[in-house]
Design goal:
The complex is a heterodimer of chains A (about 425) and B (about 500).
Chain A (H helix, E strand, L loop, with lengths): L2 H9 L7 E2 L13 E3 L4 H13 L4 E4 L16 E4 L6 E5 L4 E5 L4 H9 L3 E2 L12 H7 L12 H4 E7 L5 E5 L11 H5 L8 E8 L1 E2 L4 E8 L2 H13 L4 E7 L1 H6 L6 E8 L2 H17 L5 E3 L3 H10 L5 E6 L5 H10 L3 E5 L4 E6 L6 H13 L3 E6 L2 H6 L9 H10 L15
Parallel strand pairs in A: 2-4, 3-4
Antiparallel strand pairs in A: 1-2, 5-6, 6-10, 7-11, 8-9, 8-10, 12-14, 12-15, 13-14, 13-17, 16-18, 16-19, 17-18
Chain B lengths: L19 H10 L4 E2 L2 H4 L15 E3 L4 H14 L3 E4 L16 E4 L6 E5 L4 E4 L5 H9 L3 E2 L12 H7 L6 H4 L6 E7 L5 E5 L10 H5 L8 E8 L1 E2 L3 E9 L2 H13 L6 E6 H11 L9 E9 L1 H17 L4 E4 L3 H12 L1 H8 L2 E4 L2 E2 L5 H15 L2 E6 L5 E2 L1 E5 L6 H18 L18 H4 L2 H14 L21 H5 L3 E2 L6
Parallel strand pairs in B: 2-4, 3-4
Antiparallel strand pairs in B: 1-2, 5-6, 6-10, 7-11, 8-9, 8-10, 12-14, 12-15, 13-14, 13-18, 16-20, 16-21, 17-19, 18-20
Helix pairs in contact in B: 1-3, 8-10, 8-13, 9-12, 13-14
Classes of the chains: A alpha+beta (about 425), B alpha+beta (about 500).
């Protein structure tokens, strides 16, 4: 049977018309042969199993905000749009846990949770428009990471469809559980390599009473590092603490200087205390400005981190190196900012400058400091030339892939060629 | 037929020959660091559970290279490998149930580095949890996971079981604090998973490894994340007439928007065991107490503590006391951490359970636990992580009473089933080990378990690496359900 007839068979697999315009699902300029949007888990199971037995390569897609992540696909036949699977399966506010289908957007999920004064503390790039499945499959940290527990820490269980159509669960719905191997951790950050995530259970947090965004202008990266460290050491109830190079500050709507940008959360007394600490810090360093800024600053930076129009790199460096790494990238003409606690520095490169050599230089810089560089978004040519990940251990990943997806049905090529 | 669950006989033959396996191990790690005489092996037959099996040899490596060498040798001889820390595990994870080589990591007990600026610590697997805490405290930092066995358990063991502790409620389990691990794989290869920096890109092999109970490899170096100690802490003791009322209060506190850092329950049996021995100030006539801790900035701690007091009173607390000094706070915690030991003093035997339920189910489940225990004719003492819905019923009995052990095992099974039927799980922090393999089928389908087996296949451990742990019906590990749950029988001196 040829690929074309296999694809035609998929088309008639489901009732009604579940097909979508393939052009809307193009990845790296390549459209699939067919795009399907199932309405139920059972329909999704049938699509995955059929693709697997027909030897087709299937790519699960949610909001399609992170399609430039990972190596270019080796082949792309079927787009599986998960956004039709978007129910809340179970939500018990008093348990602070919720089970939801993977095609729901984070925004919709947060709206439901907010009615009970709760939320999932995740701020992935580019925005809350990502789906829950995408949130987990990409596991991209945001500015909140390591101030509040993130998606990696809060996922309690995952239900996924294996390539042969088998549905498997791991973990559970309770907040503490050490039964068996944590397959949900294996799926988290795996870019759909081991199964199509269709449902997840999360531990939730109470929404902060209120939040406040504050900034301190700094003379230099060195003084920004000092200011940021000083504030971090005060054990304030922060949700974000970042160092912005002038270019990033400008994007965030702040004066184009080195800035320490932070978000505090808590009640009035706590916020007053935070603000006071920032004023003191500003006075000590003679900052031209230290105080509240518009709350949208983090939102704007988050969107830039998640753009797929530009090349975006995430450097992981120890916290003590965040300011220096931000400076290093800035001096090379890139827009950069870093999150202190998570040790992540975001670097946005103008298209013309995106050459493999520059990326390798930044990677070498991060590695020398015990860190790594991940390509979050870049043209396919660059991602083919430079490994988008920076993981020394490949043998185990390959072995897992062969165990879970021996025919290479899911996202073939994303990890390594033909894996 | 060979029965892997038989007890070792008491006769020891110190004239047993030194085997080629032992000779090779000695060449790898030094003669003094290998035990092989039967009388020397006795201490490594068991952990904090009761079943035992004599290993063929015990080695004490001092370096990653020595661990790798021991693994390669055991592989060459085709004998099982069982990693071991302090042996405080409550699920039989360190019991060499199929014999083989026990690799004890306690000589690798060095804190290599504490970097207060990067807030990371690098340590060897044999470092005792409390030693790390103490070393961090000098820098105003803390390592959050604090299992009750922290005075003796190792961080390597904590990684194997993904340990929790009272402060898991706010800070998460071990996996949330481990950044990177160096491991020796079953074929002797050494690799590093994760990074010194959080959120290394790619498949989270680190996250898969933590909690794998020594079945996927041996940890030889650990990089953990530290956090700044809070500015203020407030510890409260809320006193209730019954465990059911206290359970209702647990959900009420948490759903009100304040998550304490710890929320522990001690029932009347525990109070009556603890108070006469430790004099920590628990009222003897209380039905149950909740030990509640909040932390943060002075301003928020004040408000949160006030909230907790009000919530407890509204839910029927007779009294809510607040620790007025660090000394008083330490005493309240001493009662909690010494609780299980105190049961050992009032009952010849007790059977310790570890189950989890959604916390809204706690009142119903606790009432049912008490009903089932009374019906079976046993006293049951409860001391547990109520905020997480993580129960630890301790059934007290005397194994010399004919038939008692069997009845206790049946009761334990009923309580585990109750947890599962209430939407919960069969273990919150102790692990599956050998003791709970049979229960795995209560919470996972055949397909789920097959997927878990694939992880093990990918790691290539075959049947040699900590065999017969976690997964039910592993090749060559057949054992009856009853034989397996006998592992639950704990000895005095264990911790939760």
């Amino acid at each position: 049977m040829t690929t074309t007839t296999n694809v035609e068979a998929l088309r008639s697999l489901l009732p009604g018309d579940r097909t979508r315009n393939v052009e809307d699902y193009a990845i790296d300029g390549v459209a699939p042969s067919i795009a399907l949007r199932p309405d139920t888990r059972d329909e999704a199971v049938r699509i995955v199993a059929a693709a697997n037995s027909a030897g087709l390569v299937l790519v699960p897609l949610g909001a399609r905000t992170a399609t430039a992540l990972g190596r270019p696909l080796a082949r792309y036949d079927v787009a599986l749009d998960t956004t039709g699977l978007a129910r809340i399966v179970e939500y018990e506010p008093n348990d602070l846990t919720a089970t939801i289908e993977a095609g729901m957007t984070l925004a919709t999920f947060q709206q439901t949770l907010a009615t009970n004064g709760q939320y999932l503390p995740a701020d992935p790039p580019p925005s809350d428009n990502v789906t829950i499945g995408g949130l987990l499959a990409t596991a991209r940290p945001g500015a909140w990471r390591h101030h509040v527990p993130g998606q990696r820490d809060l996922v309690l269980g995952i239900t996924s469809i294996q390539p042969d159509g088998t549905v498997t669960h791991s973990g559970g719905r309770v907040v503490k559980n050490v039964s068996g191997y944590d397959l949900h951790r294996m799926h988290t950050g795996a870019l759909g390599a081991f199964g199509v995530i269709v449902e997840a259970t999360f531990k939730l947090q109470p929404l902060p009473v209120s939040t406040r965004t504050l900034a301190i202008e700094c003379e230099s990266f060195e003084s920004a590092a000092e200011v940021a460290y000083h504030l971090w050491d005060l054990a304030l109830p922060l949700r974000a603490l970042s160092i912005l190079a002038p270019g990033a500050a400008e994007v965030a709507g702040l004066p184009a200087r080195v800035q320490v940008l932070l978000e505090c959360m808590g009640g009035d007394a706590v916020l007053a205390r935070c603000e006071d600490a920032i004023h003191r810090e500003g006075a000590t360093t003679r900052a031209p400005h230290a105080g509240e800024v518009r709350p949208g600053s983090f939102v704007t930076l988050r969107a830039l981190a998640g753009t797929s129009a530009l090349t975006v790199l995430r450097l992981g460096v120890p916290s003590s190196q965040v300011a220096a790494a931000t400076q290093f990238a800035t001096e090379r003409g890139y827009v950069a900012w870093g999150h202190l606690a998570a040790g992540s520095v975001l670097v946005v490169m103008p298209e013309a400058n995106t050459i493999a050599e520059s990326v390798r230089a930044l990677r070498a810089y991060a590695r020398e400091r015990g860190g790594f560089l991940e390509i979050e978004s870049a043209p396919a040519t660059l991602r083919a030339e430079v490994d988008p990940f920076d993981t020394p251990e490949r043998t185990l990943v390959t072995a897992l892939k062969h165990q879970f997806d021996p025919s290479g049905t899911l996202n073939r090529g994303r990890w390594q060629e033909d894996v | 037929m060979h029965n892997p669950f038989r007890r070792s006989t008491s006769t020891v033959e110190s004239t047993a020959p030194q085997t080629a396996l032992v000779t090779d191990l000695m060449a790898a790690v030094g003669e003094r660091n290998v035990l092989w005489r039967p009388e020397d092996l006795i201490g490594y037959e068991y952990d904090a559970t009761i079943d035992r099996r004599r290993p063929d040899a015990v080695v004490f490596p001092a370096t990653t290279e020595q661990v790798a060498a021991a693994v390669v040798i055991a592989n060459a001889f085709g004998v099982p490998i069982v990693p071991r820390g302090s042996g405080t595990g409550l699920a039989g994870g360190a019991v060499p149930i199929m014999g083989g080589v026990v690799i004890v990591l306690t000589r690798m007990n060095r804190i290599v580095e504490i970097d207060p600026r990067d807030r990371v610590a690098v340590l060897q697997p044999g470092v005792i949890n409390l030693h790390l805490q103490d070393a961090c405290a000098k820098h105003g930092l803390l390592y959050a996971p604090d299992p009750s066995s922290q005075r003796i358990c190792t961080i390597g063991g904590n990684i194997a079981t993904n340990s929790g502790g009272p402060h898991t409620l706010a800070h998460g389990s071990t996996v949330n604090h481990v950044l990177g691990i160096e491991i020796v794989l079953p074929d002797g290869r050494v690799t590093f998973l994760g990074s010194r920096v959080p959120d290394a890109p790619g498949v989270d092999l680190r996250g898969v490894f933590v909690g794998s109970e020594g079945t996927l490899g041996i940890v030889t170096s650990i990089t953990v994340r530290l956090q700044r100690a809070p500015e203020a802490v407030r510890t409260m003791l809320a006193i209730f007439e019954s465990i059911e009322v206290a359970s209702e209060a647990v959900s009420a506190i948490i759903s009100g928007g304040v998550i304490p850092v710890a929320l522990e329950m001690l029932d009347q049996e525990i109070i009556r065991a603890v108070e006469p021995r430790l004099h920590v100030g628990y009222p003897l006539d209380a039905g149950a107490v909740l030990l509640i801790e909040v932390e943060g900035l002075r301003e928020s701690v004040e408000a949160d503590a006030q909230y907790v007091v009000t919530a407890c009173r509204e839910m029927g607390a007779r009294e809510v006391r607040t620790a007025e000094s660090e000394e008083e706070r330490a005493r309240l915690w001493e009662g909690r951490k010494g609780g299980i030991g105190a049961i050992g003093a009032i009952s010849p035997n007790f059977y310790i359970l570890d189950g989890v339920v959604p916390r809204t189910q706690l009142p119903k489940v606790m009432a049912e636990v008490m009903r089932l225990s009374a019906e079976a004719g046993f006293r049951c003492a409860n001391i547990f992580h109520a905020g997480d819905g993580n129960l630890h019923p301790n059934i007290m009995f005397d194994e010399l009473v004919p038939g008692a052990t069997q009845k206790v095992l049946d009761l334990g099974g009923q309580i585990m089933r109750l947890c599962v039927d209430s939407g919960g799980s069969i273990t919150g922090e102790h692990g599956i080990g050998i003791e709970k393999r049979s229960y795995m089928e209560w919470i996972f389908s055949a397909a789920d378990l097959e997927a878990q087996q694939r992880v093990r296949n990918a790691w290539g451990t075959g049947d040699l690496f900590n065999p017969c742990k976690i997964l039910p019906n592993s090749h060559g590990c057949g054992a009856g359900h009853e034989a397996e749950i006998r592992q639950h029988l704990a000895t005095p001196g264990v911790y939760v």
